[in-house]
């Protein structure tokens, strides 16, 4: 029998309507379920480390960041564990998974339509779709953040960049051999903006919150190592230890998705658009 | 038919989604082997081997051995290029080294100091 863990973040705890709906849903589904009330991302790490192997299904309830934090701790889960998501707000993950609201999220979890994906490591964490890295601001704002990237394909790259996005392309499902796609952005203007590739890049800029940034680098890889003159931080502003290894470890992940939404969950946003 | 010194406006089939995109501020070196398109607007040193398109943009500075199906050189290129189908050297290009292709298009104003070997497609 499936044993469920629900990780309820602050937004989930604050919603009385959600609490009432969850109580009814768990009763109607006769779920063998344990609720964890989490206050912050670090607490999720502790829960996953201590109890991660006790459950067959772990569901993040709340904001996107809660799901991402759960996934970052994938190393603590059993290989057969199934992950799910019940949202409290509309975000990029709900769009990707096709979940309208928490009611539909519960319904989707009940149906247990599972796709197998591959989480990639970035430092000590894992990510399933995208992982954003920012370079911490230099005391001298005019100084550029120089990043050195060493790729598996014997390439070395130097780039002044403010933001890096790593895309997990789930190589099992695509006709290419590089599970990673790295994109880096700067605030420098390009010599030309006539290329379609830049128009596509502009769509992604909103996700990094840098309206004036420009795509500077897109490169596929199996794994890569990133060094930087300035500190690197993740989207929670947690410091990342350098040199930062990406894609060194892979972990199979079983994710509950909406029926008919399987392909959307697998493909990277760039390919969908 | 071999097509040399063709004078026409540039009509480049720009990439919709170049897998390898090296922007203007980027300096890269090493070996780039792929079956995807490669676009360089910055500096690159090493080798590029692809079955797709290589485009070296106006401000690019590339010192490399290049093998590709088609190539467009708009910037500064030094090295050996073996292009299977078509090599287009734009008016802004400055090319040094050796070029081998079956179709060569050179725009007016391009500077080429290279040994060119044409072969039948």
Percent range for β-strand residues of chain B: over 45%
User: Given this structure, which CATH class of the largest domain in chain A is correct?
Assistant: Mainly Beta
The number of distinct structural domains of chain B comes to 1
Order of helices and strands of chain A: EHHEHEHEHHEEEEEEEHEEEEEHH
> Termini of chain A, distance in Å?
40 Å
Rounded to an integer in angstroms, the radius of gyration calculated over CA atoms of chain A is 19 Å
Detail the poorly predicted runs of chain A.
188-200, 203-211
Which architecture name of the largest domain in chain A does CATH use? Sandwich
- Overall structural domain count of chain A: 2
Reading the helices and strands of chain B in chain order gives EEEEEEEEEE
* CATH T-level topology of the largest domain in chain A: Tumour Suppressor Smad4
Helix content of chain A: 25-40%
Give the CA-CA distance, first to last residue of chain B.
Answer: 9 Å
Structural class of chain B: mainly beta
Summarize the amount of helix of chain B as a percent range. Answer: under 10%
Shape of chain B: globular
Q: In percent terms, what proportion of residues of chain A is strand?
A: 35-45%
Quaternary form: heterodimer
Largest sheet features of chain A: 10 strands, mixed
Q: Name the overall outline of chain A.
A: elongated
Largest sheet of chain B: 10 strands, parallel
Could you describe the 3D structure shown?
The complex is a heterodimer of chains A (273) and B (121). With 273 residues, chain A is of the alpha+beta class. Chain A has two domains: 110 residues, Rossmann fold; 123 residues, Tumour Suppressor Smad4 (Sandwich). Chain A contains nine helices and 16 strands. In chain A, helix 2 runs parallel beside helix 6 and helix 3 crosses helix 4. With 121 residues, chain B is mostly beta strands. Chain B has one domain. In chain B, strands 1, 2, 3, 4, 5, 6, 7, 8, 9 and 10 form a ten-stranded parallel sheet that branches. Chain B is globular. Chain B starts with 19 loop residues before the first strand and ends with a strand. The relative contact order of chain B is 0.18. The interface between A and B is medium-sized, with 30 and 29 residues. Strand 12 of chain A pairs antiparallel with strand 1 of chain B.
């Amino acid at each position: 029998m499936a044993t469920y863990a629900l990780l309820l973040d602050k937004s989930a705890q604050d919603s009385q309507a959600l609490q009432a709906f969850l109580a009814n849903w768990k009763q109607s589904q006769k779920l063998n379920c344990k609720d964890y009330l989490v206050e912050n991302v670090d607490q999720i790490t502790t829960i996953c480390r201590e109890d991660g192997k006790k459950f067959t299904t772990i569901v993040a309830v709340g904001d996107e960041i809660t799901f991402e934090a759960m996934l970052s701790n994938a190393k603590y889960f059993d290989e057969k564990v199934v992950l799910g998501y019940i949202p409290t707000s509309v975000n990029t993950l709900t769009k990707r998974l096709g979940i309208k609201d928490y009611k539909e999220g519960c319904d989707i979890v009940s149906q247990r339509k599972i796709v197998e994906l591959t989480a990639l490591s970035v430092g000590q964490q894992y990510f399933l779709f995208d992982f954003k890295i920012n370079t911490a601001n230099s005391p001298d704002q005019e100084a550029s953040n120089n990043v050195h990237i060493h790729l598996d394909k014997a390439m070395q790259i130097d780039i002044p960049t403010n933001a890096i996005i790593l895309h997990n392309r789930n190589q099992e499902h695509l006709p290419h051999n590089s599970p990673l796609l790295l994109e880096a952005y700067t605030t420098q203007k390009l010599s030309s903006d006539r290329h379609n590739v830049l128009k596509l890049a502009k769509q992604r800029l909103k996700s990094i919150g840098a309206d004036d940034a420009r795509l500077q680098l897109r490169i596929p890889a199996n794994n890569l190592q990133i060094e930087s003159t300035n500190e690197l931080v993740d989207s929670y502003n947690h410091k990342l230890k350098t040199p930062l290894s990406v894609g060194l470890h892979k972990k199979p992940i079983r994710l509950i998705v909406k029926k008919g939404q399987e392909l959307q969950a697998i493909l990277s946003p760039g390919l969908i658009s | 038919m071999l097509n040399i010194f063709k004078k026409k406006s540039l009509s480049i089939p720009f990439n919709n989604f170049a897998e390898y995109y090296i922007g203007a501020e980027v300096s890269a070196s090493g070996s780039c082997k792929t079956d995807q398109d490669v676009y360089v607007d910055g500096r690159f040193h090493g080798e590029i081997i692809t079955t797709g398109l290589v485009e070296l943009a106006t401000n690019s500075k590339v010192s490399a051995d290049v093998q590709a199906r088609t190539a467009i050189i708009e910037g500064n290129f030094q090295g050996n290029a073996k292009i299977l189908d078509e090599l287009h050297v734009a008016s802004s290009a400055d090319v040094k080294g050796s070029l081998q292709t079956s179709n060569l298009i050179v725009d007016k104003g391009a500077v080429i100091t290279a040994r060119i070997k044409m072969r039948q497609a």
